[in-house]
Amino acid sequence: MIGDARRSAAASPPDEANPDDHGPDPAASRERLAKLAGLVALIIVVVIFPLVFSNATITEIAVQTIIFVAAASAWNLFSGYTGYLSLGHAVFFGAGAYAVGIAARDWNVTGAAVFALLPAAGLIAALIAVPLGLVALRVRRHTFVVITIAFFFIAQLTATNLAITGGSSGLLGPVPDWSANIFNDPFYYAGLIIAAGAVLLSFVIRRSRFGLQLRAIRDDEDRAVGLGVHAMPVKLTAFTISAFITGMAGGLWFFFLGQAFPQFVFDPLFDLAIALMAFFGGLGTVAGPVLGAAVLEPSQLYLTLKLTNDYLSEILLGVLFLVIILFLPRGVLPTAGEIISAQRAKRQRRSAGE
Amino acid sequence: MARQILEAIADGILGGGVYALMAAGLTLIFGVLDIINIAQGILVVLGAYLSYVLSVHLHIDLFVGLLITIPVMFVLGVAIQVLFIRPLRGSERTSMTLLACYAVALVIEGILYGTFGPDYVTLNAWYTQPNASVKVFGFYIGDIYLFGFGLALVAVLALYLLLYRTTFGRAVRATMQDAVAARLVGIEVNRVAALTFGVGVAVTAVGGMMYGATSGGFSPNSGYDLISRLLAIIILGGLGSVGGAMVAAIFMTTAEALVDIWQPNWAVAVFYLVLALVLIIRPAGLFGRRAVRAQ
Lengths: 354, 295
What we know:
The complex is a heterodimer of chains A (354) and B (295). Chain A has 354 residues and is mainly α.
């Protein structure tokens, strides 16, 4: 057991090189250069994407995908790093949506100014996360999951019954005031900023002392506490950061789709979808949730468009989840990394044998 | 007012029996397999639809139909365990099994939508009619509530006998205490796990029939409402404690019925408020054996 914990804490996922590993090995530095070039190319592609593919259907899918990249990264930042599986992140998504909706309605905010409300939406979500975290993070594993699900239902019930949220008929969103032929682009870039922030934060946290504490909690919380990790503040901080990003994503989602009602913004499928994305790409890695969202969200939107039957896409989501859990339980990236390093080891053995 | 309160308490206790049964199945599965079957809610709805099909299309009485639906749900439960739960191993097993159950729930919900559509249906029989009731101490109690409560008592008793008076029950309890030790003394833990999952799911046949007959209508969407209540009940009762789940179920439904007198919109919230309060004071739940298992 001790060996297990040490090994999993020490083993970094294959998509990230160890920062201390500045060896003179030319192959390693070539690889790092290739990774950097790939990253730059990826950034260029996502930045110019809506300019190249300006078809409204495609950019619409792109906006929703980028929002899910942000949400899945945010979820992974907490659940993937700490191992505390939250199935209540829709609370923060919905809180962000309602925060933007209520602020825009009551203060008559319209047009591009609505984007300025997004950080406030994130802040509201983060403020909600603190008391929720203080209650839920006292318990672990199954109980934690169940508590987060309970929060989800409380949030849905509250939004349905309060007057300020518009009850079961919900809220209508502020109307964008820019021209229709670039309609989706501002949403896309706002989403890109949030998503990039989420990914960058995941990357920085993963390499920081804070990230190490989070992963120590995931591997063995009791031992981490014994080694001097203040588990509660560490977990709560990650939970709150995650909620902040999710709230911003929710606010943007609401502004983009233009409506919010309880069953729609507090959607249990949202929780499952972001978890699936993180699992698909690789739980606890930086690139995993990005890959998961970039593959799964467009496929699901495409299928929904094609099939026009909600229940079929529901069945497909379930089947896909089962397939991934059964056959790719560690996610695409870690599995691919294992295959690559196994092949590299084989090659090295062969060249050493010559 | 006093009369309303007494009626609410009677409703709560009679309705709680069925929740107790459904929650007992859920907490039993947790105790033996160390997983939470998120699909329990939609399985109850599936049980209700099975009863619906038998009664509407084959004209089989709801209670007689249970002789068919209970074995069907049992087999389904065993199949889910063998196909989707048993293969999952390793450090992420907790999350994996939860998500697998969630995925199974989605698939079942989708199939129910595809088959029955989103409209609400009810289960009907002569004893579900509003005028089919008996007078007890000046109160009218619907026949279906009495029958259902009786059935829940019988089922709970059967569950008790199964757990405490049979060899299988001994194996189940041994596995609950310590799966490794149980394996060492020759218990086939895998078989016990599959059969326990089957038993835990089989009770949803009874729960579903009662839910369909008393809830005033159900749809494929009803699973969420059910599972949220059931989860609150088993946490309150202490995960893995069958007795605790029963007490918690009756307590919760009674509290809900009482709040419903004054605040019908917020009655469901009682479940979560009680849950939050209990967890702040006592994270292990009322009858929890251990708050946290070593990982």
